[in-house]
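Hi again,

Forgot to attach this to my earlier email, sorry! This is the prediction with adenosine-5'-triphosphate bound. I've pasted everything inline since the attachment limit keeps bouncing my files.
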Amino acid sequence: MKKQAKIDTSNKVIDIRGLKKSFGSLTVLRGVDLDIYKGENLVVLGRSGTGKSVLIKIISGLLKADEGSVKVLGEEVGTLNSKELDALRLKIGFSFQNSALYDSMTVYENLEFPLIRNVRNLSRKEINAAIEEALEDVGLSQTIHQMPSQLSGGQRKRIGIARTLILKPEIMLYDEPTAGLDPITSAEINNLINQVQAQHNTTSIIITHDLTCAKTTGDRIAMLLDGQFQRQGTFEEVFASDEERVKQFYEYNFID
Ligand SMILES: Nc1ncnc2c1ncn2[C@@H]1O[C@H](COP(=O)(O)OP(=O)(O)OP(=O)(O)O)[C@@H](O)[C@H]1O
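Structure tokens for the complex follow:
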């Protein structure tokens, strides 16, 4: 069971109303409404092709909505120019399944890279302190001078998360954080997601097909069905539904 998080329901970090998105004759999002609050872990569930990635891309301004309002950290994303979008994206940390580390760089260099690219005029001392803190956050201080090839899959995943955390994002987007990991490593990643939330009061969206991940990390679950969030609530509330597709989603997952 997930530990109760400190969620500030007076502070909406993401506010989506009536969001619609089609590609030609394919309608993907048919009027999505969603609120995400400061400090909350929101898990997005939905079968393949239901539009989870499209939603994330619209939130981060990589795709434009056809209709509706998408406010992120108080800004209407669809109206921002490219400079404003860049500034907003700096506040969003993306942890994608394929956000691989650079194999030819050490862990230190992998973490230094986003800092140098995104933050101007940092001293060596500040860079070192930020790298040490990010590594401490993910419990891997000892790997600082190692190459990615010397790390396990789970450690690489954690370094990937550290590389995102180093820019101190206000929102974290985790795309299938446990995909391809064994159950023990998955549990480590789930704990890390909760630890990031507790330590930094980060707001996170977690896209997953893994119901153990959903149950352990999600304060709230939103399930995409037919282009809308027809089910929202705690894990128990969502899966108390009698709807066949919700029940199937549960039954086809292995869960303790
Ligand atoms: N740029 C695009 N152009 C045309 N169609 C697209 C585009 N992006 C996404 N789609 C379509 O939108 C639908 C939703 O895609 P999306 O990637 O959001 O699914 P998903 O829920 O993230 O799936 P998965 O769980 O497999 O990652 C799919 O049918 C996809 O082919």
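The radius of gyration is 18 Å. The first strand starts at residue 8 and ends at 23.

That should be everything now.

G.
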